[in-house]
Amino acid sequence: MTDIRELNERIQRESSFVDLLMLEVGKVIIGQKQMTERLLIGLLTGGHILMEGVPGLAKTLAIKTLASTVDAKFSRIQFTPDLLPADLIGTMIYNQKREEFTVRKGPIFANFILADEINRSPAKVQSALLEAMQEKQVTIGDNTFKLDEPFLVMATQNPIEQEGTYPLPEAQIDRFMLKVIINYPSREDELGIMRENIQQEFPTASVVVKPEEILKARNVVKEVYIDEKIENYILDIVFATRYPKEFKMDKLSQLISYGASPRGSIYLSLAAKAYAFIKRRGYVVPEDVRAICHDVLRHRIGLTYEAEAENVTTVDIINEILNTIEVP
User: Fold this and answer.
1) Which of 213, 237, 257 is the last residue of a domain?
2) For residue 310, pLDDT beyond 80
3) Beta bridge partners of 91
4) Contact indicator for 42, 292 with CB cutoff of 8 Å
5) Within this chain, do residues 206 and 276 fall inside the same structural domain, yes or no?
6) Using an 8 Å Cβ cutoff, are 231 and 238 in contact?
7) Both 190 and 69 in a single domain?
8) 100-105 and 90-95 strand pairing
9) What is the pTM of this model?
10) 202-240, pLDDT tens digit by residue?
């Protein structure tokens, strides 16, 4: 039997770096707390994040700042239509002096990867990145290289200018733990952003945690207590995306072409644990599941033509499910 009080006290101690990390990131990134929290959830669970938002919303700056607070290596890869898999993972180069082929590693060999505008590159480049994300290793020629941990990929998509892009297939988009939609900052936040950018010196974040501590925290996150009732609540939400009629949501069966895969329930429980850890709690409450549910499921639900004709979005479907399923 888990001693909740003891576990709670331990997790409060172990998660003390979270406040420091959020404080340092907050020096550089004004507002966008949700984006920072989601990046942290990805970091604490080993999951990867797909972000969608118009240009200029500090997506690049956010992951770069997070990398500097963790004292980790950062790589930014601009995805373009002429990019090749070798530009990403590396290739074999012939050394004339030694008369042999040597491995030249690509920018994927870093702790934090920003895959900027991932939908601008062809499928073979996208799949090279997604293989590295899934396997946490890269094969160049006859050599296989393990990627350094922690390894976090943040891919971005631009919701405007869809001409000449290569949308991610459903099977590949499912590998992202979270899909986060970034909105414009509030007027108050934008005033702070404007003032920050016209100062003589732009603020920088200091190192507050080492990569080894993040790996240790990942093991602690897995220990966060999740009750059987909340596990069943997660399963109800995921199963409602597949079989809405069983949950008395007959209308949704006309709007959903396919529901969330088992990754949906795995990532929903993991993300809820990480969210509880960030809130410095040793146990998951239903609000943790509800807070993270949209980001975990929005890219795992397929819409029918009827849904698109009625302007129904996956967010509307998730809201309907959350409002119908009984909270434990």
Assistant:
1) 213
2) yes
3) 104
4) no
5) no
6) no
7) yes
8) antiparallel
9) 0.88
10) 888 888 888 888 889 899 899 899 999 999 999 999 999
